[in-house]
Amino acid sequence: MAIVLELLSRKNIPLKHYKFEQDYVCVGRDFNNDLRLDDPYVCPSHMLVAIDPESGLLMVNDCQSTNGIKINNKFVTQATLSPNDVIKIGRTHLRIIDTKAPLPRAMPLSELEENLNWLNKAFLAVCLSFLCISYLLLSEYIDSVKEFKLIAVLPAQLGQLALFSLWPLSFAILAKVVKKESHIVNQINLTLLITLVFYVLSLLQKIVVFNVNPGAWFAFIEFVIFGILLSGFIWLSLFIAFHQATKRRNIIALSLSFLILAPLFTFGFLNTGEFDSSPNYDATLLAPAYNFTKAFETEKFIDNSQRLFSKLDKMKKD
Amino acid sequence: MRRFLVLLFIFSAHAQSQQTAQNLFSHYQSALYQIRIIELESGNKSSIGSGFQIDQQGNILTNYHVVSEYVFTPEKYRIEYLSNDGSNGTLALINFDVVNDLALVRKTSTTENEDTFNIANELPGQGETIYSLGNPHDLGMIVVPGTFNGIKKNSFYQRIHFTGAINPGMSGGPVVNALGEVVGVNVATAGNQIGFLIPLNKVQRLAAKHQDEILAIDQFKNNIQQQLMANQAEIITQLQNTTWQKSSLGEASVPTKIGEFLSCWGDSNTNDNEALFLSVENRCRLDEQIFLNGGLRTGGIELEFEWLSGKELGQHRFYSLYSKSLVGAGAGNMATKTDVTNYQCEHNKVINIHQVNSKTILCLRAYKEFDGLYDVLFIGATLDHDQQGLISHFTLAGVAKDSALSFTKQFMDAVAWQ
């Protein structure tokens, strides 16, 4: 029979394990112990772990130590262990593993993970960065009214790109912290790709709004699409960074998106009661090349405007 | 000898004018009052103006804006007068004319023999000396001699142009001719010796209501609403019935002279050598607005056209600039949360009768206390050219639904390509 002791961090994350092919294990600060702990709060001879010969269960015994033994935060002098009990001696956290207990089956390999392999290409990262910076420079050029100097605007746009890469960087660092691969290239590619999708959608939105002039409901649709994009992005970032259970990942992705979306929603949709002495209108104008729909006649526009009056009279009563 | 005679004449004319001023003041000071709006909570005055008595029943004329706080929140204020001899008493509101900024108040108790001002039958001649009376900055009653310069041109709300200093606190004081007859009422100043007075006919019209009963408090807002309604109908009808003179602005033909009473100005950026586009502006507005209370003005009109041309910019850059020029249009009149609702807007692309395609935005807000009155804000931007465009814009303050819609329609159909 073997006894396995697992050394845990303060947050009970496994650090190291020791396997002993014997029926008892002495734990303490003394070098004579089977497992020697370098913890000043542990006695030279602190704890004895043994297999009960009759029941075959694991037991711990306190060897009259100064600071005692805590199992799941309760002091004991002698106790039988059940699986997943965390033992605390001095400031050290341990778990004693019963080698007879069966382990859960292996997690199936994720299809999605295989399918995301194409993201892991440095060349793609270079291309996407180039596309992003081109888009930023082009929109800067289009927005400029004075003479356009590339050298003058380039630093600001590169800075913006660097700002975007904070997100993949922080995920890569977090992954490294929990001893996983950083997947930095995947993370960067994912972020740039989502940014580009966002740019394309915002251009499309302009064209649609300019041509169709939809009502206030369209802003809500825009918000929903933005929300889906954002939570998908967070979910994928988590997926690449950590090996989590799907449920846990869903919960984290949803709550993070909620944290970002809730204030946006409050400002955008619930804040309508505030008085504003200026009107809030859409000023988008696009060149004739993007003008696809037919214009109304003056008469029709005036007719449509009638509804403003009833809307206002209703607002007045509220 | 002749020179001496001329000098003597000038001197005597000057002496005479001084004499008149002195006479006027001593003779009429007992019919002049300081009008005070007393805030009930603190028991102290919150604003002051001047007023003058016109009959034995104790009727006093002043400016509407002097008593506007009381009209809007009668439960928080009362009106008092302070006479030259230091006696005071309460005043009751009889009637008012918001459009011409006049109010008629009445002393609640009168004595046997009251001094009064007579109202003149006709306006003085151009250049005649007239005398403005009032109590500037709460310093005591004064007389300011000045010149009558006729009725101000380009104005819908008629004002006498008076060359003489009118200061805050003199509002509501009378302006009299050499005989001591009232020819106008102090109302505003445009700085440096230019003052504006409410002319005689408006004064006569309100003074004729001196027999009226005291106006019930719940009728105040109702009266304002009716007066504003009638006024907007008149001004919009006048605007729509005059022929709109067209002139060219860039490649467009736009109405630049609408009605005699709007004053127009132009501007362009041709001085800016670095600009990659041309902007030419043409704007007309009504110089006066109707004062309703400290936070609310109405009755204003603004019309604006801007021609933008950016041949060197290319269509995408031009349209980006064009969009930005459309941002930030605001109301033409001051109003607060308690007075008006938020704006509601209608956007669309419109093709007018001259085949001009425009993105059109019409925004409206309603007056909370005056049924059927709205502020209108319109913006149109033509969409027919790659690197050129015309922005047309107007605001109307305090108009009825019909006026708003018919004026908007006429304005939209007035723009054409040359």
TrEMBL record, chain A:
The keyword Transmembrane helix applies. It comes from Paraglaciecola hydrolytica. InterPro entries: FHA_dom (IPR000253), SMAD_FHA_dom_sf (IPR008984). PROSITE patterns: FHA_DOMAIN (PS50006). The keyword Membrane applies. The chain crosses the membrane at residues 118-138, 158-178, 190-210, 216-239, 251-270. Keywords: Membrane, Transmembrane, Transmembrane helix. This is FHA domain-containing protein. Residues 25-76 form the FHA domain. It holds the Pfam family FHA.
UniProtKB/TrEMBL annotation, chain B:
InterPro entries: Peptidase_S1_PA (IPR009003), Peptidase_S1C (IPR001940). GO terms for molecular function: serine-type endopeptidase activity. It comes from the Bacteria. One of its GO terms (biological process) is proteolysis. Keywords: Hydrolase, Protease, Signal. Residues 1-15 form the signal peptide. PANTHER family: SERINE PROTEASE FAMILY S1C HTRA-RELATED, SERINE PROTEASE HTRA2, MITOCHONDRIAL. This is Serine protease. It comes from Paraglaciecola hydrolytica.
